[in-house]
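[job 4471] stage=fold_predict status=RUNNING
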Amino acid sequence: MAVRQLSIFIENKHGRLSEAIKGISESDVNIRALSIGDSSDYGIVRMIVSDLERARDLLGENILSKVTSVVAVKMDDKGGALYKILRALEEAEINVKYTYAFTSNKQFGAYVVLRVDDVEATEKLLSEKGFELATDDEIRA
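[job 4471] inference complete, writing structure tokens
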């Protein structure tokens, strides 16, 4: 049920981000969510895209990319929704490496993307706690 995230590694220099995204932007691939983390020399661009394989092809061999499994949780687009999810993970001693959120074009509101050590255990816990998980197909549709 995990969602596949595309990460690309680019130099932290003027114009590199737009160069990396250009091919994807000129295609029919939609970037559903985006997060950028940087250091002084390099940046990691994390994306949920509508067509992961096509996006990787469009990036070409000159841009280092990686596919990672993450957990995407549906949440109401209102105050306190994220805290409930994080609190459940804290109580179960599940460490969150990073997170980002994005709103949805669907009725329920928003998703939070969680990078954790054990995706399967996290999904099981959150499901048991009554949280609704998103699937790759659902996000990409």
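[job 4471] summary: Residues 3-69 form a domain with the VC0802-like fold (CATH 3.30.2130.10).
[job 4471] exit 0
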